[in-house]
Amino acid sequence: MQKILTQIGHWLGRNQKTIRAIQWIVILFYAFLIIVPPFLSLPDEAATLVNNLTVFSQFMFWGIWWPFVLLSIIFFGRMWCGVLCPEGSLSEFANRFGKHKGIPQWMKWGGWPFVSFLLTTLYGQMTSVYQYPKPVVLVLGGSTIAAIIVGLIYGKQSRIWCKFLCPVTGVFALLSRLAPYRYKPDKAKWHDFSNKKVIPIHCPTVLPLRTMVGSSECLMCGRCSNHREAIELSWRSPNEEIVVYGKDHNSIWGSLLLIYGLCGVALAAFQWTNSFWLTHMRDIIESWFLAHNIMWVFNTNAPWWIFTNYPDQDDVFTWIFGFELIVYILGMGFIIGSISLGLLSLATIITNGKYKVEVFNHLSLALTPLGAASVFVGLFALTVTLLEKYANQGFTWIPYLKAVILALATFWSIYLAYQIIRQYTTSIIRRISGLLITILVFAMINYSWLLVLHIWTIKSDKIPWNTLWINF
Ligand code: SF4
After folding, report:
1. How far is the CA of 223 from the centre of ligand 1 (A)?
2. What separation in Å is there between the alpha carbon of 182 and the centre of ligand 1?
3. Residue 204 falls inside a structural domain
4. Do 356 and 250 have their domain in common?
5. Total structural domains in the chain?
6. pLDDT for position 199
7. Which of 349, 373, 422, 472 is 20 to 30 A from 434, comparing alpha carbons?
8. What separation in Å is there between the alpha carbon of 134 and the centre of ligand 1?
9. Which domain holds residue 67?
10. Is residue 183 part of a domain?
11. What is the model's pTM?
């Protein structure tokens, strides 16, 4: 098996021209699906996946591409980024003709992936990016143009955009830690090669090839495969990068992205459409405005690029609903995130004897499988909704599949948490206490999904829809 994997890596390294040709095909397909649908009328009752380009594009982006790219990162590392991603390819292509300026200090700030993930998640919900083509142009098209501009200005033969600024680079860096293989350098072979002619290669994310230990920043492009006859694609335990290397290779921004991003704001964004809490919050806030005769907040004149505004589809946000949505998503994300942060900090103190941010970051990494499963389950709901709506397919078994995915991911997270905790204490009591507190975080995330998948679904049959949406 190792031989086959090595050959696959070498094949990728030798066939960069073929990969570039594939990248251009992906770019053309991507551009077509982004640019054409906004010029078409929105889907009517008769629209299906095969007779309507807007629906097809919606399904390709949000039903297939987004959830399954996330899944692919867990199984194949960031191969999507290095081999297929149109944004990264265009950024690198633009870089050939660029100014090749040095990377500015502001760009290296570790918080960009966290901030950009939060903002794109929120903005996507405000404008209903999963439903309509115009916000897709703004979100995906805007991000692609930014990637090209960065490529034209900064770095040399590299993908500075992918390394520092892409809105999903942080999430992909976290998830790729679970991949079962990585490009691994052999230091002895590297040194043995010193008398031979070395063909220089350019790692797109400028990694230290001789000493790299993980795969979180590696785009799996394959260019370094067989470099100095010392680097090859190698199997590893999917736990290795978190349990072993996570001790020294972690960051507070990675932890915050997991805690407040994947398990906080993203979860709230999947939750709000059938949230009882949002309904009650709306009742209270909107009754207050009605009682005080402040009626402008119920206007529906927000442009589509601020809040969803499609009167022909009976889908319009009032100003007040738009702000309630922002408050709900950020508020729930903050509450879930802060409880997780508090519990993980407590587990760190119990496990380590005192609070140490490196230990906290290491322990937070145990959330990776559950965070990944949570986002996949949320996005997969879109796949199912689109298939049910536009392909007349019924999937009564899907909630069970989601429950199984979440359960397996929870067990994986518990296993990782235990393997991490045991590195910091030999005391059985401390180990068990630390683990139990960490499990409370996993339980809270699972409970949030239980609300979405089961409890609210049953009860929501009894609430009139006009308490959730403004109905025309
Ligand atoms: S280490 Fe760099 S060159 Fe090697 S596969 Fe990863 S991204 Fe490509």
Report:
1. 6
2. 9
3. no
4. yes
5. 2
6. 84
7. 373
8. 35
9. 2-176
10. no
11. 0.92
